[in-house]
Amino acid sequence: MSSTASPVPPEAITQPSGGILPGSRRPRSAPPSAAGLRARLRRSLRRAAPALLAYAGVRATGLVLLTVWARAANQDVWHMLAADWDSIWYLGIADHGYVHELGTKYDSNNLAFFPLYPVLVKAVAGVTPGTRASVGLVIAVLSSFVAAWGIFAVGDRLHGSRVGVLLTVAWAALPVGLVQWMGYTESLFTAFVAWSLYAVLTGRWVWAGALAALSGLTRPTGIALAAAVSLSALCALRPRFSARVLAGAVLAPLGWLAYVGWVGLRLGRWDGYFAVQALWHNQWDGGLETLQRLRQLFVYDSTPELFLVMVSLTLVASVVLFALSVRDRQPLPLLVFTGVLLVIVVGSGGVYFPRGRFLLPGFPLLLPLALAVARTSRRRAAVAIACAVLGSAYCGAYMLLVWPSAP
Question: What is the H or E stretch that residue 231 is in?
Answer without folding.
Answer: helix 222-237
